[in-house]
Amino acid sequence: MDRIRLTVSGIASIEEARLAIAAGADAVALAPGLAGPADTARARIAAAVPPPVAVILPVAAWTAGAVAAQADLSGAGTVQVEHPIDPEDYPGMRRILRGRRFIQRLPMAEPEGAAHTYGGLAEALLLDAGTDAGRDWAAARRIAAASPLFLAGFADPAAIAAAVAAVRPWGIDAGAALRRSGRLDPDRLAAVAAMLQAAGRAPAA
């Protein structure tokens, strides 16, 4: 692994997207409030993000058709599927959203089974790191060894550092951990981006 990628999530404006990109983010994930199909804000943000930075749209729908309907007009090149939709519907969803990439969020209960199911369907998987300081990272390490895995759900930069050391995932999806009083904090952004770069260069334990 040459580096650990950084997604900055909860992006609600062009200004936030630019701040994340300036700090070295590999991707920006749009805020859930921008996910409605009639909302043009997400398309404006997506249009303002230069390549190669990816734009991710999280979609909290339970069927492939609903996922496709929400994602079609977004302008986002990557769709993050928040619920475990029927695996048999993935090929049809890909046909509708031709050219899009997919990240599948894994359920907290029995994530390894879900990873086995979706690992060959989505380009990457996402697992919420949770808030339990005593979490057993063994399952996350096994998933990360088999598929590109993002870890998410961190409360602060220290929690990100601990998860990176324990799992060495393909990427980190950070939202609340990069904010102070609800606003993206440039110092936290810079510190986490630098930590991930250093961790990616370091040999695995």
List the helices and strands and how they pair.
Blueprint lengths: L4 E7 L2 H9 L4 E4 L10 H8 L5 E6 L4 H8 L6 E4 L8 H7 L4 E5 L5 H8 L5 E5 L9 H9 L2 E4 L4 H11 L3 E4 L4 E2 L2 E2 L1 H16 L4
Parallel strand pairs: 1-2, 1-8, 2-3, 3-4, 4-5, 5-6, 6-7, 7-8
Antiparallel strand pairs: 9-10
Helix pairs in contact: 3-4, 5-6, 7-8
Structural class: alpha/beta
Major β-sheet strand ordering: 1-2-3-4-5-6-7-8
Count of structural domains: 1
Instruction: Identify low-pLDDT runs.
Output: none
Shape: globular
Q: For this entry, what is the oligomeric state of its chains?
A: single chain
Count the helices. How many? 8
SSE order in H/E notation? EHEHEHEHEHEHEHEEEH
CATH topology description = TIM Barrel
CATH architecture: Alpha-Beta Barrel
Q: Rg from C-alpha positions?
A: 16 Å
The percent range for strand residues is 15-25%
Question: If you had to describe this structure to a student in words, what would you say it looks like?
Answer:
This protein is of the alpha/beta class and 205 residues long. The chain has a single domain (5-201), classed as Alpha-Beta Barrel (TIM Barrel), CATH 3.20.20. Helices cover 37% and strands 21% of the residues. The chain has eight helices and ten strands. The chain has helices at 14-22, 41-48, 64-71, 90-96, 111-118, 138-146, 157-167, 186-201; strands at 5-11, 27-30, 54-59, 78-81, 101-105, 124-128, 149-152, 171-174, 179-180, 183-184. Strands 1-2-3-4-5-6-7-8 form an eight-stranded parallel beta barrel, surrounded by seven helices. Helix 2 links the parallel strand 2 and strand 3 (54-59). Helix 3 runs parallel beside helix 4 (90-96) and helix 7 runs parallel beside helix 8. The radius of gyration is 16 Å and the shape is globular. It comes from Labrys wisconsinensis. Keywords: Isomerase. Its EC number is 5.3.1.24.
